[in-house]
Amino acid sequence: MIILAAVLRIVPHPWNFTPIGATALFSRRDVPRSPRRLSLSIIALFAGDLFVGFHRLIPVVYASFLLSVCIGTGLANRRGILRVGGAVFLGALQFFLVTNFAVWQFFGTYPHTPTGLAACYIAGLPFFGNAIAGDALYATLFFGTFALAEKFFPALSEPAGHLAH
Q1: What residues of the chain score a pLDDT lower than 70?
Q2: CA separation for the pair 134, 139 (Å, rounded)
Q3: How many other C-beta atoms are found inside a 10 Å radius of the C-beta of residue 61?
Q4: Contact 40, 31 (CB under 8 A)
Q5: What's residue 131's pLDDT?
Q6: Mean pLDDT of all residues in the chain?
Q7: Is residue 11 left, alpha or beta, with left meaning phi > 0 and alpha meaning psi from -120 to 50?
Q8: Whose CA is closest to 21, among 1, 31, 100, 51?
Q9: pLDDT of residue 74
Q10: What is the rounded distance in angstroms from the CA atom of residue 10 to the CA atom of residue 12?
Q11: Cα-Cα-Cα-Cα dihedral of 152, 26, 91, 11, to 10°?
Q12: What is the pTM for the complete model shown?
């Protein structure tokens, strides 16, 4: 999943239409109760950044994806369509709010006024739409594939650490 997420960040794609947000949400289900769950999306993000480049907002972007991992915690045991959809929306929304606020705060692109902040958020709306669409597509693939695999391999339904080795 890390390799797929990194590769899909590198190949041409619409802005913010990547699997990174969905990876962050899914990582809580995939690796419950493990510090590794925090690193899956960050490793994918970092691997992609090695190719697409780093920028001043990297710490903010990475922190935002860690928030998405926390949002994914609510999906650990109950993953219905509405819960996953809600998590996708919340993950994309917090990313939009956090990163656009950082753009407004740390770059001189918009005046540091309420009107400037509003203009920054309005300019970011197309990216927000792409993030929701990308997260929804990839979350459907990740969670759907895992749910299908659970049907064929019931042991996957067991909590991590309780699987036969």
Answers
A1: 1-2, 28-40, 76-77, 156-165
A2: 8
A3: 18
A4: yes
A5: 93
A6: 82
A7: beta
A8: 1
A9: 74
A10: 6
A11: -100
A12: 0.80
Q: How far is the C-alpha of 83 from the C-alpha of 75, rounded, in Å?
A: 7
**What is the Cα–Cα distance from 53 to 132, expressed in whole angstroms?**
23
133 residue type, one letter:
A
Tell the residue number behind the tokens 């699987």, with chain if given: 163
The 3 state secondary structure assigned to the chain is: CHHHHHHHHHCCCCCCCCCHHHHHHHHHHHCCCCCHHHHHHHHHHHHHHHHHCCCCCHHHHHHHHHHHHHHHHHHCCCCCHHHHHHHHHHHHHHHHHHHHHHHHHHCCCCCCCHHHHHHHHHHHHHHHHHHHHHHHHHHHHHHHHHHHHHHHCHHHHCCCCCCCC
The structure tokens 């391999």 sit at 153
Task: Report how far residue 38's alpha carbon sits from residue 108's, in angstroms, rounded to the nearest whole number.
Answer: 32
Q: Are 135 and 23 in contact (CB under 8 A)?
A: no
